[in-house]
Amino acid sequence: MTLSGSCPTLADAGRNWPFRDASRMLRVGRLDWHVQSLGDPEAPVALLVHGTGAATHSFRGLIPLLSRRYRVIAMDLPGHGFTCGARADDLTLPGMAHALAGLLRALQVEPALAIGHSAGVAVLIQMALDGAIRPCRIIGFNAALEPIRGNALLSPLAKLLFANPLTSRLVSFQARIGNMADNLIKATGSPVDKTGRDCYHMLLRQPSHVSGALGMMANWRLEPMLARLGGLKTPVTLIAAADDPMVPSSVSDRAARLIPEGNFIAVPRGGHLLHEADPQRVCELIEASCAPASARSVA
After folding, report:
1. Beta pairing, strands 71-75 & 45-49
2. Which residue of 12, 28, 170, 265 lies most exposed, with the fewest beta carbons within 10 A?
3. pLDDT of 174
4. Tens of pLDDT along 243-266?
5. CA-closest candidate to residue 168, choices 57, 6, 1
């Protein structure tokens, strides 16, 4: 099943997109990827992977900070933002990890550092378990590493909504005439600047993006990946905000305990979009996590 609705274009909906000059479209297999690359091309690569319903704009505050030391690569995941051509199997966790691995091969990059938010953390861990990436560390913010509360209801409901081609059009129409984006942002518990709010408003007006987010929720199965966490050889730091109303910080704490080289860091506030609410603090946490063990223990 392919996603409903035509994808937005950089020339039209994306003309004011954050770091638009760093954007390009790259065809890999059946997917047309929206990719952004910033920083010194010779620097180590930091890979950024957003969560469900977001896109590269989610890292707009973090990218300029990280690009001082890294070549930063960010992309819109299949079915999200400006990335087009996704089918239902591209929205599963293994499918998304496989597709992203193909993009990295096409770009000829090997991430030295992998950073994810929410469901993006699961994608990175799946890739590491599959041997598709071998970063020195995975860093996750408010990682969605357990089935969400109410999933027994929400997953079948998402499947029904995803299967109906009218759903995404109705949602995007409602987003055009109402405050759906503002309500969703409020539900994250995070302060989001005007640029971010404008981007979320634009995305929710796109039937293809709505369909991609619904399809991801409908097809997401974490249990097989979670069963393999004990065999993960990549060091992982999971950072979570105590006031995240969407994914409890205890999810990251439990997951870190299952990973041989897992580490959990709690921060008091920031909400689910911690990396958008306070990118400077997030960058400091990333740098501290990547410091030598002796320096981390002192900090």
Report:
1. parallel
2. 12
3. 55
4. 999 999 999 999 999 999 999 999
5. 6
Is the pLDDT at 241 greater than 50? The verdict is yes
Report d(CA 275, CA 201) in Å as an integer.
19
Which pLDDT score is estimated for 218?
A: 80
Instruction: Evaluate whether 97 touches 130 at the Cβ level (below 8 Å).
Output: yes
Cα of first residue to Cα of last residue in the chain, in angstroms, is: 50
Task: State the average pLDDT for the chain.
Answer: 88
What would the 3-class secondary structure string for the chain be? CECCCCCCCCCCCCCCCCCHHHEEEEEECCEEEEEEEECCCCCCEEEEECCCCCCHHHHCCCHHHHCCCCEEEEECCCCCCCCECCEHHHHCHHHHHHHHHHHHHHHCCCCCEEEEECHHHHHHHHHHHCCCCCCCEEEEECCCCCCCCCHHHHHHHHHHHHHCHHHHHHHHHHHHHCCHHHHHHHHHCCCCCHHHHHHHHHHHCCHHHHHHHHHHHHHCCCHHHHCCHHHCCCCEEEEEECCCCCCCHHHHHHHHHHCCCEEEEEECCCCCCHHHHCHHHHHHHHHHHHCCHHHHHHC
> pTM of the prediction?
0.91
Residue 234 φ/ψ, nearest 5 degrees:
-80, 130
Question: How many beta carbons lie within 10 A of that of residue 254, not counting itself?
Answer: 17
Position 100 scores a pLDDT of 98
Q: Helix 194-204 vs helix 165-177: angle between axes, to the nearest 10 degrees?
A: 140
Stretch among 13-22, 135-144, 217-226 having the lowest mean pLDDT: 217-226
Cα dihedral 249, 241, 172, 50, rounded to 10, equals: -90
